[in-house]
Amino acid sequence: MYICISFFKNYEYLQQMRLKKIIIFLPIGVLLGFIVGLVISLNEILAHEYFQYKMLRLIIFSFKKNLNKWTILAIIIIISLLIIWLIVLFITKLVRKLYLSNKKKFILEKKIN
Length: 113
Prior knowledge:
Layout: H1 2-23, H2 25-48, H3 56-112
Helix pairs in contact: 2-3
């Protein structure tokens, strides 16, 4: 009985750890999107020489436009990759269960014959 209870407690703990491992990818994606947007904004600002002509509103607009675009794009990509990953995990778990159940049936039929 104790083994069964501890198994369920460990199972819940493992599920929480998996969720934490999955959730950690979202901030990494946001950070990467922010860095890409920052680099692209700086490239655009330096290419158009906004600092030289003191076009502060265009500098702010460029930062806002690129940071928002790339951060949102990174969030969408990370969420879609996580969904695909969860679907693949679900399918592999389902296939594994079907394989094991068929293997057990085969073993039982072999023992009967």
